[in-house]
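Example S7 (structure tokens).
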């Protein structure tokens, strides 16, 4: 009789790491000893899934094992015990009761003393059903305990993710904290500064792409050597990446966890949670951007379509001198006006609107008077060069705060 071509399958979940008996080396050793004691086995390869749960079968090594079964490279699968094969009663029964027999695959679970060669109908026995249920319920129990521990850690403000966000590294002294990654932090600061200069997200992405700056996912995988199956390998900067950085409160020192969750244990689908369910810890780590600057960027993003209008020069600089709210642009009968948001929404401020073209002309005259220039037309470069803030008061009184003013 020709020898069985054996696939030795071993698996270790990250939740099993404390159990030495289930370690990868221990599983390999048990299977190797078993094969040595049986002359009709020939080991083809070890198929190792390290860090993958047994509650689903979407595991790299297991997928490769199935592929090699189809290619007829193997015709026997040996595991230390059934829990290493899987902890989902439904799928375990499908593979061992249907797929493997259909392809004449011999299955052996050493510790459970199961061998499909000796009993073709072993998956129909009560013993098999109880064993399968025991392994699945063990996984459920462990999963619930791990989830409870993670929730407690999040409430304490401990970071429980695999890798730190772009701009940070895990603190070598405390894996639940961050330290600043100087290179990536400088990229973030550049992005923030370009947004403050009213560059669009697409313009910022183009600048970084033209300079050959690595995207966050490529930087993590190529430089810091941190990656996972979930990491999206974006080769180019784009609008979405820039937007995520500009809105990320991580960069003001705030840790937010629990934004997503799985509604059901067996399914991969992840849903977004309500903000009141988030675990928020302020001052968790050193900020890259101060809160005032971050809020200014958020104000710009709130009316980004207006800011990106080539004809819009002043909207990001205007503040109400009475209630300190931002301003809103609205077109009335073909003419653009600026309105205090509080006044426009009738939530407290009584300040009237001011015409856009009138304000621009007032600013141009003021710049020329202050700097003894003769600029004929106002443009974004002039505004960004000179103007820090424009305050508008009752009866169209305007106060210009210049960048050179102390």
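Recovered sequence:
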């Amino acid at each position: 009789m020709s020898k069985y071509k054996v696939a030795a399958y071993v698996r270790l979940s990250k939740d099993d790491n404390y159990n030495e008996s289930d370690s990868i080396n221990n599983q390999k050793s048990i299977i190797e000893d078993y094969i040595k004691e049986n002359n009709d086995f020939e080991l083809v390869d070890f198929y190792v899934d390290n860090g993958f749960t047994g509650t689903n079968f979407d595991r790299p090594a297991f997928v490769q094992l199935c592929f090699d079964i189809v290619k007829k490279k193997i015709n026997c699968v040996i595991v230390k015990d059934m829990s290493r094969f899987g902890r989902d009663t439904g799928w375990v029964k499908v593979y061992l009761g249907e797929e493997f027999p259909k392809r004449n695959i011999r299955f052996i679970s050493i510790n459970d003393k199961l061998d499909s060669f000796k009993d073709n109908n072993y998956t129909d026995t009560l013993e098999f059903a109880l064993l399968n249920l025991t392994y699945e319920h063990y996984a459920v129990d462990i999963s619930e305990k791990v989830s409870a521990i993670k929730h407690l850690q999040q409430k304490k403000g401990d970071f429980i993710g695999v890798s730190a966000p772009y701009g940070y590294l895990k603190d070598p002294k405390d894996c639940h904290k961050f330290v600043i990654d100087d290179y990536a932090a400088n990229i973030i600061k550049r992005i923030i500064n370009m947004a403050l200069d009213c560059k669009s997200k697409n313009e910022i992405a183009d600048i970084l792409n033209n300079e050959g700056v690595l995207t966050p996912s490529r930087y993590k995988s190529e430089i810091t050597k941190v990656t996972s199956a979930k990491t999206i390998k974006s080769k180019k900067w784009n609008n979405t990446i820039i937007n995520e950085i500009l809105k990320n409160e991580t960069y003001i020192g705030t840790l937010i966890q629990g934004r997503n969750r799985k509604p059901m244990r067996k399914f991969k689908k992840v849903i977004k949670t309500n903000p009141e369910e988030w675990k928020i810890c302020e001052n968790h780590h050193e900020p890259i951007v101060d809160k005032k600057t971050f809020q200014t960027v958020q104000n710009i993003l709130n009316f980004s379509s207006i800011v990106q209008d080539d004809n819009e020069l002043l909207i990001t600089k205007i503040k109400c001198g009475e209630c300190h709210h931002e301003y809103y642009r609205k077109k009335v009968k073909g003419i653009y006006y600026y309105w205090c948001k509080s006044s426009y929404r009738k939530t407290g401020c009584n300040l009237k609107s001011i015409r856009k073209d009138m304000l621009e002309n007032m600013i141009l005259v003021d710049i020329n008077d202050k700097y003894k220039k003769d600029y004929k037309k106002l443009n974004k470069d002039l505004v960004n060069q000179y103007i820090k803030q424009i305050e508008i008061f009752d009866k169209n009184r305007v106060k210009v705060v210049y960048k050179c003013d102390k």
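Notes on this example. The first helix runs from residue 24 to 36.
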